[in-house]
Amino acid sequence: MRKSIKFLLVLVVFLFFLNGCIEDLVSNSAYVRFRNDSATKTVMAVWDGVSMGGNLAPGEITEYYEQNPGTHTLVWKRASDGKALTSMGYPSLVSGKYYTYPYSD
Predict the structure, then answer these.
(1) CATH number of the domain that 74 lies in?
(2) C or N terminus of the chain, fewer CB within 10 Å?
(3) 36 contacts: CB under 8 Å, gap ≥ 6
(4) Average pLDDT of the chain?
(5) Which pTM value belongs to this model?
(6) Is 66 a domain residue?
(7) Which residues pair with 16 in a beta bridge?
(8) Whole-angstrom Cα distance, residue 103 to residue 16?
(9) pLDDT tens figures, 50-76
(10) Which structural domain, as residue segments, surrounds residue 88?
(11) DSSP the chain
């Protein structure tokens, strides 16, 4: 009786673990967020031509945004006038993964 209970417990734990792994494997999304590591500048992350998270004051971080896997564009701009602070980057996302993109000067 005890052996069968232990077996069932191990089986249940294994199934929960397997279910989480399967969800990661079949996920068709990646997740990105943006962080301002500048000590002085308020910036904005422009992802595929769209401002993500609005203006980020020094030390701020956005929530995660669900994105399609593949290659995207990222440019950091000064919030006050929209001037590009970085050249365009081309991050490539993998489904089921989480990414944080920091700005620092």
Answers:
(1) 2.60.40.780
(2) N
(3) 42, 43, 56, 57, 58, 59, 60, 61, 102, 103
(4) 88
(5) 0.73
(6) yes
(7) none
(8) 38
(9) 999 999 999 999 999 999 999 999 999
(10) 28-103
(11) -HHHHHHHHHHHHHHHHHHHHHHHHH---EEEEEEE--SS--EEEEETTEEEEEEE-TT-BPPPEEE-SEE--EEEEETTT--BSS--B--EE-TT-EEEEEE--
